[in-house]
Amino acid sequence: MKQKKFILQENELPTQWYNIQADMPNKPLPPLNPATHEPVGVDDLAHIFPRECCVQELDTEHAWIDIPEEVQEKYRYYRSTPLVRAYALEEALDTPAHIYFKNESVNPLGSHKINSALPQCYYAKQEGTTNVTTETGAGQWGAALSYAAKVYGLEAAVYQVKVTMQQKPYRSSIMRTFGAAVTGSPSMSTRAGKNILTEDPTHPGSLGTAISEAVELATTTPNCKYTLGSVLNHVALHQSIIGLEAEKQMEMAGEYPDMVIACFGGGSNFGGIAFPFMRHNLKDGKTTEFIAAEPESCPKLTRGKFEYDFGDEAGYTPLLPMYTLGHNFKPANIHAGGLRYHGAGVIVSQLLKDNMMHGVDIPQLESFEAGTLFARTEGIIPAPESCHAIAATIREAIKCKETGEKKVILFNLSGHGLIDMPSYDLYINGDLRNYAISDKEIRDNLKEIEKYQK
Questions:
Q1: Bridge partner residues of 17 (DSSP)
Q2: Run of H or E including 141
Q3: CB 328 within 8 A of CB 449
Q4: Residues 160/176, Cβ–Cβ less than 8 Å
Q5: Mean pLDDT, rounded, for 16-36
Q6: How many CB atoms lie within 10 A of CB 42?
């Protein structure tokens, strides 16, 4: 009998996170103070983030960082997540490729985001913080943060991108069920939100606007810290639990990936699955290919510029060295709300610059076509974000069919789409246009990218 899934026992779970910065031949450039253009240190960042997260953010020396025992205990509630061989998808594609996916959708929160929400709230609690705030796009991170805050007795305030709040109303319900206060962004509750709405009263919101509002709240509220679901180095560090488990599980399967694929918004789930395998390229001479699948309408990896830019729209964050479409870029209203971000994480940007990985852009209709095929073969309805990784995997599997190559492909199923059924309804009914906006807005969106490139 063919083995379908591979699961680690609790005593086999990783006890350390992997910090790829320590092994990178070209270290990421430092974040800069926007006023002085001097590198920021731990003390500068600790005004916004939990201090231990700031230490981890800037650590370029230690490849392995201990997972606190209390966080390990919480991880054991749902880890390990299964590594699954996608036999039915392989058969549907008639491909000689072996396709595996790491199923992060099975944890109680439905996505990989809880892997970083728990340690961030743990560190906040350890230093005496009482309140945390954050942004969220599609709502996976907001839900995870809301739950983790409740676990550690913290009050949570979440700014959710307004357009995805409308597209996915039950995400907000989940956050409120866990006790969080949820506000659509941009809002009139912060100076940043008021300024954005004054300039554009119909602004649909983006992760950049929501970050601005959350950072402003954190810096103006006593005993409050900001938490982030993607982009920054310490988030990718926490998510490395995904790839570290997958390494052991691929050994159980008797194979090693020729390709590792994940969807890409800011880099959390891509880094989580890719970085532990990438260390073998860096240190052991492996030649695994790493592919980040981003939306065609928000293509910072394939069409962005590498430069220092703000991580938010209002310019509250430090300047980050990254591939970016510009912090004022207004992403199209696609249904993969977690991928609507103007810039790539600092580590990913440096790795892309060094040709250690590459990006592909996926049109929205292709992503839903891939997600629907996956649902009909493997029985799991994937989140619209994860559909991008599935679409990229299908592209590679079809290439294998054409060449006869028997490659091993591993992708990260970062979350399920059971809260995203209105989007699937639009697709199934033929009402989901390529970007879910008008043709004029599509043209304007692409013109903005071209203008920024110049």
A1: 65
A2: helix 140-151
A3: no
A4: no
A5: 96
A6: 16
